[in-house]
Design goal:
The chain is an all-alpha fold. The chain has eight helices and no strands. It has helices at residues 9-13, 16-30, 37-40, 47-58, 64-68, 73-78, 87-103, 110-131. The structure holds protoporphyrin IX containing FE. The site of protoporphyrin IX containing FE has 23 residues, from helix 3, helix 4, helix 7 and helix 8. This is Group II truncated hemoglobin.
Length: 159
Amino acid sequence: MGERTIPTLHEWLGGTDRLEQLTTLFYRKVLQDDLLEPVFRHMSPEHARHVAHFIGEVFGGPKQYTETDGGSHARMVAHHLGKHLDEAKRRRWMSLLLESADEIGLPDDPEFQSALLGYLEWGSRIAVLNSTTVSNPIQPDAPMPIWGWGETGGPYTGD
Ligand code: HEM
């Protein structure tokens, strides 16, 4: 068995265009949803693209959120402060996002789905926790989170 290059989650799902497609569809659903529309009705026109860039960077893609969009982990967290999210809203957010991932045909292999769900669970629960406070727990120079394949490894091994 030779050396092999492990693809990033960003590569595996098809890159930034796919993530932008995902978040565009997702926020369209959000704005049609009774529970989430009031939470997101004032979001900026760049919101979907910024979230796609954030996730792409966490998934090992280009540094678009921090370098092109001028964001940071602390800035992302800041958007959730004082928003008073709760478990019902988080669950709706999760289900609409996963539904969007299926509808645009993101990879459905068990390993990718495990990594995607693990990240979304982690990130969405942190968003809810941060929404109950108004002081940002993240230092301005804190690094971006990084997410990989986790314990399952990946379908990329091919053997
Ligand atoms: C992995 C999970 C999550 C990630 C990566 C994420 C990422 C982001 C990012 C990058 C922004 C800033 C967008 C911009 O620059 O315009 C943002 C804003 C926001 N997020 Fe999240 N988020 C997550 C989970 C959630 C959840 C679960 C909720 C609610 C149920 C939520 C509600 C919001 C709201 C209300 C804003 C601000 C909208 C506004 O500007 O009016 N987020 N999020």
